[in-house]
Known about the structure:
By secondary structure, the chain is of the alpha/beta class. Helix content is 33%, strand content 25%. A 6-stranded mixed sheet has the order 6-7-8-3-9-10, sandwiched between helices. Helix 4 (110-120) packs parallel to helix 6 (156-168).
Amino acid sequence: MEPTSELLLDVRHLSKTFPLKKSKTNKAPSFKAVDDVSFQVFKGETLGIVGESGSGKSTVAKMILQLLEPTNGEIYFLGQNLANQSKATKRRMQAVFQDPYASLNPRMRAKEIVTEPLILHKQLNKKNRDDKALELLHEVGLSEQHLNRFPHEFSGGQRQRLSIARAIALKPDLIICDEAVSALDVSIQAQILKLLKSLQTSYGLSYIFIAHGLPTVKQLSNRVAIMHKGKIVEIGETNDIFQSPKHTYTKSLLKAVPPSHPRDRHKPSIGG
């Protein structure tokens, strides 16, 4: 699916400061995890956000998802300030996290996990749960035999598919994937990325795809934002970021990417 010019998410001057423990001088020092971050996401687009651990990218995600309150700045979703929007509007934004096991209720079967959002929002009665659950499982490459399994009975890749099925249940406009494939083997990563691309086309989804490495982001993103020490230091079209990086930190990330083919490993990395 090609991105459109219709604005979906508008993040304006977002900052988040966390207080630290008081020192002996009774002053309350603080740590600015996110510092004046602004970006936009358009309908049908995937925006990749890349940065090392501690760069602030997951904190940005949590503020967009309303899991953290911004210290400063505003977030507009579908043209309205997110702080003032109803739950009915906020459900049009979902998330897939790095560790699916931590975000899935271990006491619930797969059919209950994927349809729980629909029941909570009164879009499904329990009588029709199994049919809808099977439909959602099929969408992510799982089958009827998985309906009554608990999360611990799935592989890591299957659990992530289950998380994705739950995320698409309410047919959201935006899904935030926070390190959604980083814990998976490379072959499984490729399968999940292929699934996300397919669902983007069939559901008209937009993604914010957060990762600490550039190669994964390259496969899925239309644009890439590079975060470093709480700031976005560079943002642009994916090809431009890879072929003509402007910021020294972006260049250092690209130098750390190993060549894809063994015969090229003696050559300088792209962006050097």
